[in-house]
């Protein structure tokens, strides 16, 4: 017996990992977008606030003496992150938390209502001690060595008397932004990936264990435990659905195998008897003194017996072909009523000779998809039986009818019928009512009828005609 | 696979004696090419055909069969479907492609309708499933050879004083009208088209009924006896004969 196949890689795990990777990328994109917009909005809000602050301070300073202005600016600058400097016309420091007037480009100056902002570099140490509240960025910067100088963003306003005011704020460096965003991105990605991989492993373990359960069972069945079935949990999930269909398949295979076994046993039994009869007859004939006449008689009987054996083989073959479903490829539009009319017309003289009245009862064409030869043969088998078993005088009627979805073909007789106990067994191969063992026949007729009916998606039933037998074949119309 | 009805089974062993088939000159001597790889079957068939007055050549495989069939003028070919080298259907297709129209009977162990159809589609003229009664083979070969002779489109079929008008669908025997049921009419038409030849029950089932199976009941025999009653009733010379072990034949008593 082969060992279960060792799997080198798990499809499920691969897929889940791929899924986790895709999901991480997606999460990364979303995060990047969200951080970007947040930062941009944060910057513009800070700009607006700065502008308002500048205007407020400007309004406070207008019309004040220099000492008053210095006092106001110093108060404003104290303990604020905002950078403020008040300078003379010649840009000499008067007050504020910047130590010197920064080197500004030739930027437009704000008037009293519009406050254009511009960016400028801060001299190293400009705001170092003067802006102690600017904590993390400032200390980071202090720790750095050859970093670009810090930058600020602000506006200059002219005050009456030639004084100049500058209000600015430190700009978070682009690199710092990047670092911030990258750090949070990486963090989130790491968490996502970890969750994805972890979840993937857990999920794949659980899926694999259920799949392995199925393979273990298949392996056991393969090794001969044919009654074993796939486990079905009460959850009714996809795996249970698959297990159920596998189980149905296994049931069908077991049925077929049982059928095959029954057939081979029956063949062994039913074909062995005529063949051994043949053998003894020939053997006995060989023991007799040579006599052309007697030899001829033996040969004639031999041919008859062989024909009987061949007829059985034929019937078995036809049943096997019908059960295989292969004739479905030849399905054509057939008229069941026409097939019945043909069969009735064919059997009518033979029935008549036996003292039976054979009649057809069909209202009109009954069209369906089917294999005409097999349908004709099935009906012929039923008529063979009727002619064989219905005693004279008797009646046999073939009825064809259809409702919306199903066609019904019935062969009704007023003969002895079948004992109820035998009706189900009647469809089994080689089954024959004990009393009829002496009548020639293979015991395969009804098996073939059932195989043909099932080939067409239909079913055969045996009923009591009180008196007589009703054989009904129901076939789907389309 | 074909078996005759119960009555035929008894007679099956009575393989027709050669002289019986020769006596009336109905069975013309044929030149037969048998392409069959089963040595034993080939021997048995060759012997049977020779005893029936025919000349038989045997090829044990497809290529040799094809060479013989292409080079020699045969009346009929008997080709097994399963052959080493080149299978039977390919041999037939090759022959047909070369414009050789000799009638071919395909022998096969496969009896399903689709195999039969494949055999005929490949260019075979008839299909016989193993095992078969030798009489069945003879009857079919006879029918094939005669059919291969060109037939005019006829509106009237005649045999002795039996006349069938295919247009008016009427039959007369010695000028007296015979009433036939549609099936009986078709049986008689088939017999008339094969007048003088043996027609087996299986040939009738296939051609008149389009049944590819053998009913257990002797339906053919009953139809034939009714037909005989109608056409031979009161006639001094019966025309419809039963050929023991084989089938039926229209024949004029000498």
Question: Could you explain how this protein is built, in words?
Answer:
The complex is a heterodimer of chains A (478) and B (254). Helices cover 53% and strands 16% of the residues of chain A. Chain A is an alpha+beta fold and 478 residues long. A 5-stranded antiparallel sheet of chain A has the order 2-1-5-4-3. A 5-stranded mixed sheet of chain A has the order 7-9-10-12-11, covered by helices on one side. Chain A has a two-stranded antiparallel sheet with strand order 6-8. In chain A, strand 11 and strand 12 form a beta hairpin. In chain A, helix 5 (238-287) packs antiparallel against helix 6 and helix 6 packs parallel to helix 10 (445-455). The longest helix of chain A has 51 residues, at 11-61. The radius of gyration of chain A is 50 Å and the shape is rod-shaped. Helix content of chain B is 41%, strand content 19%. Chain B has 10 helices and 12 strands. Chain B has helices at 6-12, 18-23, 39-51, 62-71, 88-97, 113-121, 134-147, 182-193, 201-209, 219-232; strands at residues 31-35, 55-59, 76-80, 104-108, 126-129, 156-159, 162-165, 170-173, 176-178, 199-200, 240-243, 247-250. Chain B is elongated.
What portion of residues of chain B is helical? 40-55%
How large is the count of helical segments of chain B? 10
Strand portion of chain B: 15-25%
Order of helices and strands of chain A: HHEEEHEEHHHEHEEHEEHHEE
The most extensive interface between chains reads:
A-B, 38 and 30 residues
**For this entry, what is the oligomeric state of its chains?**
heterodimer
| Quantity of strands of chain B, as a count | 12
Task: Describe the global form of chain B.
Answer: elongated
Q: Beta fraction of the residues of chain A?
A: 15-25%
How far apart the termini of chain A lie comes to 46 Å
Biggest β-sheet: strands ordered side by side in the sheet of chain A: 2-1-5-4-3
What is the topological layout?
The complex is a heterodimer of chains A (478) and B (254).
Chain A: H1 11-61, H2 66-77, E1 83-87, E2 93-96, E3 118-121, H3 135-143, E4 151-158, E5 164-171, H4 174-222, H5 238-287, H6 292-324, E6 332-335, H7 336-353, E7 356-362, E8 367-370, H8 372-389, E9 394-402, E10 406-413, H9 420-423, H10 445-455, E11 459-464, E12 469-476
Parallel strand pairs in A: 7-9
Antiparallel strand pairs in A: 1-2, 1-5, 3-4, 4-5, 6-8, 9-10, 10-12, 11-12
Helix pairs in contact in A: 1-4, 5-6, 6-10, 7-8, 8-10
Chain B: H1 6-12, H2 18-23, E1 31-35, H3 39-51, E2 55-59, H4 62-71, E3 76-80, H5 88-97, E4 104-108, H6 113-121, E5 126-129, H7 134-147, E6 156-159, E7 162-165, E8 170-173, E9 176-178, H8 182-193, E10 199-200, H9 201-209, H10 219-232, E11 240-243, E12 247-250
Parallel strand pairs in B: 1-2, 1-3, 3-4, 4-5
Antiparallel strand pairs in B: 6-7, 7-8, 8-9, 10-12, 11-12
Helix pairs in contact in B: 4-5, 8-9
